[in-house]
Design goal:
By secondary structure, the protein is α/β, with parallel strands linked by helices. It has a single domain (15-153), classed as 3-Layer(aba) Sandwich (Rossmann fold). It is built from 3 helices and 10 strands. Strands 2, 3, 4, 5, 6, 7 and 10 form a 7-stranded mixed beta sheet that branches. Helix 3 links the parallel strand 5 and strand 6. Helix 1 (15-32) packs across helix 2. The longest helix has 18 residues, at 15-32. The radius of gyration is 16 Å and the shape is globular. The two termini are 19 Å apart. Bound molecules: guanosine-5'-monophosphate and magnesium ion.
Amino acid sequence: MRENTQSPGETLLTRTQIGSRIRELGQQISVDYSGRELVAVAVLRVRFIFAGDLVRQIDPKISLRMDFIAASSYGDRTNSSGHVEINQQLQVDISGRSVLIIEDIVETGRTLRAIQDTLWAADPDSVRTVTLLYKEGPDNRDLTLDYVGFRIPNVFVVGYGLDFAQMHRHLPDIRLLESAPEDGMKDHTVQ
Ligand code: 5GP
Ligand code: MG
C-alpha cells in the first residue's frame, strides 16, 4: 500500500463556523418543511458526520424519516467520463414523499446527479438537496442545490467526515491537505 504522506494543513472552516452554519441550515429547512413529512437521505459513507449534525438541527416537530444510499465513484476524479455506482437499498418508500438529499461536498457534481436521478426514478413528490460544501465550477452550475453551507475554492479538503485514504475524517475542522493527492485519487474511491 502506498504510504500516506499528506497531512492536514491550514484550516479552511473552523468547527465554530461549521456549527453555526448548520444551525442556520437546520432552521431554514425546518421553516421550509413545516407541517410536512420529510425523508432525509444521507449518502454513505463520508456524510455521516454532517448528516448527524444537520438532522439534529431540524425542528423535532417535523415528521422526519431517515434513510441512507451508497455511492461509489470509479476512476480519476479529474476525468469526467468516470462513472458513479449507486447502491439503492432504501428502507423507506419515497414515492409521493418529500425527499432531502444530504451531501457533504459537490465537486464535478457527478455523484449528486446520479443520486438525484436514482431518487427521482422512485416517484417522490419532491427532491431537494443540501450540501455542506460546494466547489462551484463550469461543470456543475446547472445542478439543483437548494441549500448550500459554504462555497469553497477548488482545493482538496479533509476533516469533518471528509477523508483522504480513509484518514482525517475525525478532525472537527475542515482543513486543506498539505499537498494535493494525485495517484491516491486515481484509485477506486468508496465514499
Ligand atoms: P463529485 O466530483 O462527483 O461532485 O464528487 C465526488 C466525490 O469526491 C465527493 O462526493 C467526495 O467524496 C469526493 N471529493 C470531492 N472533493 C473532495 C475534497 O475536497 N475532499 C475530499 N476528502 N473528498 C472530495
Ligand atoms: Mg473519499
